[in-house]
Amino acid sequence: MKELTVEATVANIDTVTDFINAELEAMDCPIKAQMQIDVAIDEIMSNIANYAYAPGTGSVTVRFEAEQEPRAAVISFIDSGTPYDPLAADDPDTTLSAEDRQIGGLGVFVVKKTMDEVGYEFKGYRNIFRIKKLI
Predict the structure, then answer these.
(1) Which residue spans within 29-71 are E strands per DSSP?
(2) Strands 59-67 and 126-134
(3) Residue 65, domain extent
(4) Which CATH number characterizes residue 91's domain?
(5) 109 pLDDT band (50/70/90 cuts)?
(6) The overall pTM is greater than 0.85
(7) Mean pLDDT calculated for residue range 62-72
(8) Interacting residues of 23 by C-beta distance below 8 A, sequence separation 6+
(9) Any long-range contacts for 15-20 (C-beta under 8 Å, 24+ apart)?
(10) Which end is more exposed in the chain, N or C (fewer Cβ atoms within 10 Å of the end residue's Cβ)?
(11) 77-99 pLDDT, tens per residue?
């Protein structure tokens, strides 16, 4: 298990992505899975940066774990911002045009569709959002 703690800002998305990609490369992760994970990192980090501590800022710890059987990458995003379960909201109706859909929720929807597992818990005054991608 490896961890990185950074200020929860949009500017740190690249730092988190680089940290995770180094671990994925060490696992010989296929490029398609890596790209899907990169999109998930961008979406999750953007949400934490924009909403968890609004209007202020705080930190986020990103934890990477490699599982062997089956081979998978497990990434947890841990913050102590406002409690919020992004999985509790209804999925957006993608049959509607972009103009007719309500704003928000599409990023989490993409994460849910591209990852093999997603989970959320509020534990010890911290939001913990976890994604798992089989490799």
Answers:
(1) 59-67
(2) unpaired
(3) 2-134
(4) 3.30.565.10
(5) confident
(6) yes
(7) 96
(8) 2, 64, 66, 73
(9) 16/41, 16/45, 16/60, 16/62, 17/41, 17/42, 19/62, 19/64, 20/62, 20/64, 20/73, 20/75
(10) N
(11) 999 999 999 888 766 555 555 55
